[in-house]
Amino acid sequence: MAQQQAVDAVQGGPPPAEENPRRVRLVFLGVMLGMFLAALDQTIVSTALPTIVGDLGGANHLSWVVTAYMLAATATTPLWGKLGDLFGRKGVFLVCIVIFLVGSALCGQARNMTELIAFRAVQGLGGGGLMVLAMAVIADVVPPRERGRYQGVIGAVFGVSSVVGPLLGGFLVDNLNWRWVFYVNLPVGVVALFVIATALHAKKPEGRPSIDYVGTVLLAAASTCLVLITSLGGQTWAWNSVEVWGCGIGAVVLIGAFIWVEQRVKEPVLPLRLFKNRIFTVCSAMGFIIGLCMFGALSYIPLYMQVVNGNSPTQSGLRLLPMMAGVLITSIGTGQLISRTGRYKIYPILGTALTCVALVLLAQVDEKTSATVMGVYMLILGLGLGLVMQVLIIAVQNSTDFADLGTATSGVTYFRSIGGSFGASIFGTVLNNQLNSKITHALADGTLSPHFPVKEVLADPTLVAKAPPALKPIVEPFLHLFAISLQTVYLVAAGIAVIAFVLSLFLREVPLRTATRTSGQGEAAGPPTFRSSAEEIEGMITRLSSRENIWERYGRAIDKAGVDISVPQAYGLFRLHHAGPITEDEICARLKITPDEIRPKLDAMVASGRVQRDQNGVLTLTASGQDVIDKLCTARVAQLSKKLEGYSPDQHAELVSMLRVLADDSLDAPGRMLTD
């Protein structure tokens, strides 16, 4: 039944011709440049923050330089995805580049911390679109069989940007100034804008998706209220102040309104039924905590290095490499192990345990701790975080029905990203509250000299690193106070990580479906996603197909279809099916071979009655040839359907049609097989 529906779905003719390879490469370059910049700006400011505070002041609001960008980028993720479907991805992607560049230029011109935070939010609006639309734009120009590979590259670029960001930020601050952390986006972004505008052909949108504008706004507003409380409570606002109570009540009202709206809209941004799935709920909570720990650490470890150790921004960026290397090593390695063994529960248990240990170790760090010891602690933290990140996507996709696959995947990456926003703000609040309290006590008991410039140093903690040697006796007590204040930050983080460890014990391990063995590979530390369920399935299938030997793939399809044909001839039929009427000379030009190499194979295909050659030498498929194509595709659909056990492909018309397209595409892999 499913196979017959599949055949019927495409018998209207051969698929459209593939895009020009040179143009595909240009589009990919433009998309990667845009997404790289957007991902880079999540971490590039971490090593520049102390210098920014020294220039603009506002140390109490330092965390918002990170939080504003991540909150704006994360909250608008579902909106940009839907707008791309509605108005066409080329136009929306270009708009995102422009918004990002305008935000970058304004950040570079900021005159105070308030302006910088506001402009970072503008930058985040564009950055969120660049990250979430990257794969969608690629899918417009790349055939399905290639998309899995491109998806992996996108995830790798995102991961590399996390490593390069702090290092590049430190280099720019040391050799130019902190404003170039934002100005560097402009020339690269303009290149991306030009490439996409000229190389990417606009495609007419298919259908008119329903957009949950109200739900998106309510979710963003509620998140903002909560972040305001965690970042300003106890500092700018007293905990019992009208502002804190107002934000708290506002958050409750907004969350209530969000729940009410999500129960009534056609396509909710976050379907509440997902939370009935215990695996989704556990993974979302763990993702939130992992994001919180990772971006909180990225924001404040460089501050420790520059204030307490006196490192330059570039040095602090280099010293972050062990942590980021650990994340990449274990996230990639875990994905490979899960794919081979089908087991995944042990990794988040080990990962959260390692994360707890690392944070407790970081809570012992003081002004006397060596760079080597600090590097080991950060490596342990990175290894722990990476062990957890890969599993979240796999576990959720493995436990979700097809109808909810896309939104569940988007949901778990959303919680990880929003956790990063909270991490920077919570870490900042704890640090500032602890530091202010300890300075007050130190001044009272004489530990800190009454001549110490408290107001100036709190506005710019890096001043202590610039103090002349004669002032060392006055400065050293402050370095100790700063270090032990950060110890409290990591103890609080360790307590939060313990919650993730407990949650990991309740993560139910479900036997791994064949399709989900490649889920999330390259995306563990990747951007927030917004893909439909069909797009998620397509990614799984193409990644699985990429691991197959092409000869074996054809051989299995031929055996299942029960047709008498060799692998090279079957391949030749599919090439003719896609190319349409074509001459022998045109085939030779495309395959870069001589007529003597191809003619015997073509003569055999004509003799079989599956291909006909007219008096002008034009080759076309006969009815018999088309029948072989249909039988092989039907056999291939059956093979692909087996890979989707658990998703009930025969019960979803959308999946049936997609499988026929993927079957046809996977049997048309490029190469010289016809002459082998």
UniProtKB/TrEMBL annotation:
Its main location: membrane. It comes from the Bacteria. One of its GO terms (cellular component) is plasma membrane. CDD domains: MFS_Azr1_MDR_like. It is a multi-pass membrane protein. The keyword Cell inner membrane does not apply. Pfam families: MFS_1. The chain crosses the membrane at residues 26-49, 61-80, 92-111, 117-138, 150-168, 180-201, 213-232, 238-261, 282-301, 321-339, 346-364, 376-396, 481-507. It is found in: Cell membrane. InterPro entries: EmrB-like, HTH_MarR-typ, MFS, MFS_dom, MFS_trans_sf, WH-like_DNA-bd_sf, WH_DNA-bd_sf. GO terms for molecular function: DNA-binding transcription factor activity; transmembrane transporter activity. Residues 27-512 form the Major facilitator superfamily (MFS) profile domain. Keywords: Cell membrane, Membrane, Transmembrane, Transmembrane helix, Transport. Belongs to the major facilitator superfamily. TCR/Tet family. This is MFS transporter.
